Automatic annotation (TrEMBL):
Stretch forming the signal peptide: none
Lineage: Bacteria, Bacillati, Actinomycetota, Actinomycetes, Pseudonocardiales
Record organism: Amycolatopsis silviterrae
Name this polypeptide is given: SDR family oxidoreductase
EC number: 1.1.-.-
The family this protein is said to belong to: Belongs to the short-chain dehydrogenases/reductases (SDR) family.
Length: 279
């Protein structure tokens, strides 16, 4: 059996996940790069090829229970173990609560929370039996700051941060380090792919101007985003560091906004700052 470590990364067809998979492979880790549609593996394989590294591509929709079970079982059968799980796959559904029906909330939580929880639960077994492991989840600065019109997205990221922070001390008893990585704006497909429920519903005609301000904020916020390569480098560091820690930010912008919230004991600084988005 090889003594090279084995990593499973979700959502590697693009963005941070793609560069995390390649970055881990560059550290001589055997990477199983998963994605919902392996027909979209072209950019990942090109990037890996240019870097002179190889990785295994496997199909995985993190919302598909049977696929999750099958995928991790097959990784353990083929590679012997799972040393690192990177929960990267994520989507965003935008809308203020009155614009979000239960199906919209469910869609958001299926990927960003329930998929992460189920996959992590499954990876814990082999890691616990090995007495070591790393579970790294890409959350967001939106995992500590609730932002207008990102109610569902931020709720899912807060939830997953709560899950991981609760898990961390227990997993540590088995030699498993649990971390969250919090990017701020990163130049990926996530904005184009956002499910804009806020455009579909305008209760009593009162949300239109606010929705426009939100959309302008998103466009402006992504004027100076971090590159996905730079954000992924922090995910790789979180997954491989000799001194693992719970919380990592990927940029100064992320440090600033996460710090703002963690220091804001009565919540007024954050609500005042986020209210500015709607002025
Ligand atoms: P991205 O380029 O849109 O990547 C998201 C990835 O998740 C894609 O590969 C997508 O695959 C995959 N995905 C979506 N639903 C999935 C499912 N059900 N099963 C498996 N994979 C699925 O965006 P990104 O910015 O790199 O996002 C990566 C992570 O960073 C997310 O968790 C996101 O919330 C977080 N994040 C991003 C930013 C940002 O500004 N970009 C900021 C903070 C946090 P398909 O190609 O099949 O759609």
């Amino acid at each position: 059996m090889s003594d090279r470590k084995v990593a499973v990364v979700t959502g590697t067809s693009s963005g941070i996940g793609l560069h995390t998979a390649v970055g881990l492979a560059r550290r001589d880790i055997r990477v199983v790069a998963t994605m919902r549609d392996t027909g979209r593996a072209g950019q990942l394989l090109d990037t890996a090829g240019k870097d002179g590294v190889e990785l295994a591509v496997r199909e995985l929709d993190v919302t598909d229970r049977d696929a999750r079970l099958r995928c991790l079982d097959e990784v353990v059968a083929e590679f012997g173990t799972i040393d690192i799980l990177v929960n990267n796959a994520g989507i965003s559904v935008a809308g203020s609560l009155e614009q979000l029906d239960d199906a919209a909330l469910q869609k958001q939580f299926e990927v960003n929370f329930l998929g992460v929880a189920a996959l992590t639960r499954q990876a814990l077994g082999p890691m616990r039996r090995a007495g070591s492991g790393r579970i790294v989840t890409v959350t967001s600065n939106g995992g500590v700051i609730g932002e207008p019109f990102l109610d569902a997205y931020c709720a899912s990221k807060f939830a997953v941060e709560g899950l991981m922070q609760s898990l961390a001390p227990v997993a540590a008893q088995f030699g498993i380090a649990v971390s969250v990585v919090e990017p701020a704006a990163v130049e990926t497909n996530i904005v184009q792919n956002t499910d804009l429920r806020c455009l579909g519903t305008d209760p009593d005609g009162q949300y239109g101007p606010l929705t426009e301000k939100f959309l302008r904020f998103v466009a402006e916020g992504f004027g100076t985003p971090q590159s996905p390569e730079d954000a992924a480098a922090v995910v790789v560091e979180a997954a491989t560091s000799d001194t693992p820690r719970f919380r990592w930010q990927t940029s100064e912008a992320a440090v600033e906004s996460v710090g703002l919230s963690l220091r804001d004991m009565d919540g007024s600084t954050v609500v005042s700052a986020t209210s500015d988005i709607l002025r």
